[in-house]
Specification:
The chain has 6 helices and no strands. It is mainly alpha-helical. It starts with a helix and ends with a helix. It binds protoporphyrin IX containing FE (HEM) (2 copies).
Length: about 140
């Protein structure tokens, strides 16, 4: 085996799970997104069962930022394995998920009566926004 094909093989192995057409980062997006969907749907069921809809903004954003948007990131990375393999894409995913993890519980607490948590919600929103900006950079960047 030549040195070049060895390098190519290693690069491919770091992009894809063995035997899977899905880039590792795309799979990571979907695995994280489905956890957010489970939590978001549970919050929806909790509201329905208790007839207390106070948490609906948190429920909406867990589902829309945590599931829908993150799964769309995953779909984009699945179509662009070269971009999925870039260092910036890994950083984008990490920052976005940290933002969500800070935002969702604090937003839930805010809308269910804990007003003092607002600065944490603001911080979570800004980190999430940074993740979105990085995704925009990745989309517009030449391969
Ligand atoms: C079994 C699953 C779900 C249940 C039981 C559920 C339940 C609820 C309930 C009770 C509300 C509050 C309605 C109101 O007070 O007007 C709500 C709002 C909302 N839900 Fe869900 N939900 C579920 C799944 C989802 C999913 C998967 C999404 C998005 C992908 C979603 C998006 C929203 C949005 C955006 C709102 C806010 C709507 C508004 O403010 O007008 N929900 N949901
Ligand atoms: C960091 C990003 C985001 C921030 C800071 C944010 C902030 C907000 C705020 C302040 C509201 C008004 C809530 C209320 O009056 O109760 C709102 C409502 C809403 N947002 Fe967002 N949003 C973000 C991202 C998104 C995204 C990506 C989506 C869709 C994919 C979305 C969908 C909605 C919907 C459907 C509502 C109305 C639902 C409700 O009444 O709870 N948001 N958002």
């Amino acid at each position: 085996m030549t040195a070049t094909s060895n390098l190519q093989e290693r690069a491919t192995a770091s992009v894809y799970h063995p035997g899977s057409p899905l880039p590792v980062l795309a799979s990571r997006c979907f695995k994280t997104a489905i956890v957010f969907l489970l939590i978001g749907v549970l919050a929806g069921l909790h509201m329905s069962i208790t007839h207390d809809h106070a948490a609906h903004p948190a429920h909406a954003h867990i589902n829309l930022l945590g599931w829908v948007t993150l799964a769309l990131f995953g779909a984009y990375y699945a179509f662009h394995p070269a971009k999925a393999a870039s260092k910036l894409a890994g950083i984008q995913f990490a920052i976005y998920v940290v933002g969500c993890v800070v935002l969702f519980p604090s937003l839930y607490m805010l809308v269910t009566g804990n007003a003092s948590i607002e600065p944490v919600v603001a911080a979570g929103s800004m980190i999430t926004f940074l993740g979105v900006i990085l995704f925009a950079v990745i989309v517009f960047r030449e391969d």
